[in-house]
Amino acid sequence: MAGLLKAGLLAGALAAAVAAGSPAVAAKAVDAKASSLVMGDAAALGFDPAKLDVARQALKADVASGKIAGAYLLVGRKGKVAFQEGFGVQGPGQTKTPDAETIWRIFSMTKPIVSVVAMTLVEEGKLDIDAPVSKYLPEYKDLKVWQADGTSVPATRPMLVRHLMSHTSGLIYGFIQPNAPIAKAWAAGGENRNDVNNREYARLIAALPLKAEPGTAWNYSRSTDVLGAVVEVAGGKPLDALVRERVTGPLGMTDTGFFQPASKAARFAEPKTAVPFMYYDYTKPPVMQSAGGGLSSTAEDYLRFALMLAGDGEYKGVRILKKETLMRMRQDETTPEIRRAGVFFPGPGMGFGLGFSLVNDDKLQRPGNGTFSWWGIAGTEFWVDPKNETFMIFMIQARELAQEYQRKNRAWIYDALVK
């Protein structure tokens, strides 16, 4: 009952904000030349410097052993940075150590940014997260659900916009279980195409069978890519323009985009071993602007975004979202039944909101209750922990090590947080 009451209060506050017609994004912008890294004293911020040094020595050892080419770790609390350091080099054949200005492929860390863009449209009354996706993309009206025998039957529930934002849409990512019959059907149906624009890609996905009825199971998926098409329709502009106008521009995130000019090539991070398809060329404007994984960015830029989230939607006087809107995004959209029914869920003690994973039980997870975060398949990661007033950014380009460093980061940072 308490959860339902909270949901009702949040929904009411959000509806009131929309009715008031107040703009989601401030007209002014943060100074892009002023660094987001405000340094603080680690001990004064509650960290044991000797324990933070454990992270430093471990990452140095991983570079020395050849395990990784390079990495960058930033840890902060109460708006100030307690630790930030680059390790190794930006990539094979390079000599530059990664720093806050190194540009990384952030893959799925694109999802929270696009989800925030979507919620700015909600604040303006242009998008309804409780509406069927078919309101914006008509081809999502008549969906099919995959059956164990390989056939499909009509879905009995509509796919809602919030299902896309919470990965409860019934869509999938074929790479998670590539040998599953449904994944093979998706591959044959064009899931991995990137030669079509966002609207065309959404049409392609609509023709593929769902793994589950919308709203019944959490499956990490192409949902945010479809959300990108919804956002374009609701916002009336291409996705890159909406991202720039509503998030990256106001926050001064000048090095975050769906492609980078060749003049920035010296700042690009590269993996030890290039993997075709995964490590795309930063400098080529893509046909499909993947809302699920198409952005590259820097730690300095992404910190602006993280600090905006930590500031209840505001950073340095520029408000991107209302506090109640961000609260709605941090409301768990899953249940135990929904979590059990799917695959690739973030883990025990976790939930998932509108674009972020959530920590629901910090007896089972190191970050505090209410922490919201996400990561990218190449190993990049961020989180904001309101309970402990901490935040972190981790950058690497090593797909095979992504989850290993997630575990290590939590141990290093929370072991070092002593008061």
Labels describing this entry:
13% strand, seven-stranded antiparallel sheet, alpha+beta, Beta-lactamase, 32% helix
Describe what this molecule looks like in 3D.
This protein has 419 residues and is an alpha+beta fold. It folds into 2 domains: 2-121 and 237-416, 3-Layer(aba) Sandwich (Beta-lactamase), CATH 3.40.710; 126-234, no CATH class. 32% of the residues lie in helices and 13% in strands. It contains 12 helices and 13 strands. The chain has helices spanning 2-20, 49-64, 110-123, 161-166, 181-188, 198-206, 223-235, 239-248, 299-310, 323-329, 336-341, 402-416, and strands spanning 70-77, 80-88, 103-105, 144-146, 152-154, 296-298, 314-315, 318-319, 350-352, 357-359, 372-375, 381-385, 390-395. The strands form 4 sheets. The chain has a 7-stranded antiparallel beta sheet with strand order 2-1-13-12-11-10-9, with helices on both faces. It has a two-stranded antiparallel sheet with strand order 3-6. A two-stranded antiparallel sheet has the order 4-5. Strand 11 (372-375) and strand 12 form a beta hairpin. It is globular, with a radius of gyration of 21 Å. Mean pLDDT is 93; it is low at 1-26.
Q: Structural class per helix/strand content?
A: alpha+beta
Name the CATH superfamily assignment of the largest domain.
DD-peptidase/beta-lactamase superfamily
CATH hierarchy: architecture of the largest domain: 3-Layer(aba) Sandwich
Query: N- to C-terminal separation?
Result: 34 Å
Give me the Rg, rounded: 21 Å
CATH topology of the largest domain: Beta-lactamase
